[in-house]
């Protein structure tokens, strides 16, 4: 047995059993950082915490632990009820002694406006007639005049009056706005009607002038040709007429032939038109275009005005 044990002891290292493959190492759970560790890295949070603590400590110190105390204060720095007590004592002392200098010395340094308002409010709220008389005597002796407030400031201070004034003025403002709007709407219509009337009057005058010209032309054409009865034509004129009548008749026949030939199917040549234009009088094209433009502009304006009026 001993030999076997010795052999086992002297076995090479390679004969030892192989080690198992390395298993994945598990990460050890880390503890969460403490509050101090978190605060160390953020100076901003520290400064905010310090400011909040300082503010809260200051409030607690000033209100609860060491509150502010008034020492040797003036009477006008007291609360309103204590001011009124002081003023009532001064008024009673003045009513009893009648010493105005003493009252002025007791009220020295007090704002006259604030003092007048305080005495006026005390006199208005006082129920005891005797105390009211004392306060009135003190105010009369001091000859205080309450500072008059501006009219608008006093009016704005009274909300009920201001609200009622606004509500009562709203209907009137609405009525004025409606009347003004209707007046504005009527103005363009009245202008259009006036322009239409002017155009109609101008058109009537033009029509009447044209009608007169037509009547004159008709009268001139329809006048009786009684040259012999009037005895104004001489023998020479008759001879001239006799010589000129054949030429006139020839021209009239030529013109009539041209006019009748224009409307035929076979007479659309340019020569007939040239001959007709030679027999006609010259026409000013520029003036004709200007008059046509004026007439067209008047028609367009009348149509637009009538549409707007409708």
Explain the overall architecture.
By secondary structure, the protein is mainly α. Among the domains are: 74 residues; 92 residues, no CATH class. The protein is 73% helix and 0% strand. The protein has 13 helices and no strands. Helix 4 crosses helix 7, helix 6 runs antiparallel to helix 7 and helix 11 runs antiparallel to helix 12. The longest helix has 63 residues. It is elongated, with a radius of gyration of 62 Å. About 5% of the residues have low confidence.
Give a concise summary:
This protein is an all-alpha fold. It has 13 helices and no strands.
Number of strands: 0
β-strand amount: under 5%
**Class of secondary structure makeup:** mainly alpha
Q: How many distinct helices? A: 13
- Average pLDDT, to the nearest integer? 69
Query: Would you list the SSEs in sequence order as H and E?
Result: HHHHHHHHHHHHH
Outline the low-pLDDT stretches: 12-17, 226-233
Rg, Cα atoms, Å: 62 Å
Please describe the biggest sheet, giving its number of strands, its sense, and whether it closes into a barrel. none
């Amino acid at each position: 047995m001993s030999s076997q044990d010795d052999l086992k002891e002297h076995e090479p290292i390679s004969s030892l059993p192989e080690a198992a493959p390395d298993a994945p190492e598990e990460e050890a759970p880390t503890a969460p950082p403490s509050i101090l560790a978190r605060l160390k890295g953020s100076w901003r949070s520290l400064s905010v915490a310090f400011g909040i603590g300082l503010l809260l400590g200051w409030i607690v110190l000033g209100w609860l632990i060491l509150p502010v105390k008034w020492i040797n204060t003036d009477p006008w720095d007291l609360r309103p009820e204590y001011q009124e007590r002081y003023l009532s004592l001064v008024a009673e002392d003045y009513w009893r002694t009648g010493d105005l200098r003493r009252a002025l010395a007791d009220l020295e340094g007090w704002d006259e406006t604030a003092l007048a308002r305080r005495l006026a409010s005390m006199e208005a709220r006082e129920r005891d007639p005797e105390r009211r008389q004392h306060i009135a005597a003190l105010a009369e002796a001091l000859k205080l005049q309450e500072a008059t407030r501006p009219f608008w400031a006093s009016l704005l201070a009274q909300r009920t009056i201001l609200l009622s004034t606004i509500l009562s003025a709203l209907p009137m403002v609405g009525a004025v706005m409606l009347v003004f709007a209707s007046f504005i709407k009527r103005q363009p219509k009245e202008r259009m009607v006036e322009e239409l009337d002017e155009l109609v009057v101008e058109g009537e005058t033009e029509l009447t002038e044209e009608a007169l010209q037509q009547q004159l032309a008709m009268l001139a054409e329809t006048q009786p040709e009684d040259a012999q009865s009037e005895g104004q034509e001489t023998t020479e004129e008759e001879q001239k007429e006799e010589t000129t009548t054949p030429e006139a008749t020839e021209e009239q026949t030529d013109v009539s032939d041209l006019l009748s030939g224009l409307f035929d199917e076979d007479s659309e040549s340019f020569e007939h038109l040239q001959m007709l234009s030679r027999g006609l009088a010259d026409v000013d094209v520029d003036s004709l275009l200007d008059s046509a433009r004026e007439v067209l502009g008047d028609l367009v304006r009348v149509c637009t005005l009538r549409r707007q009026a409708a």
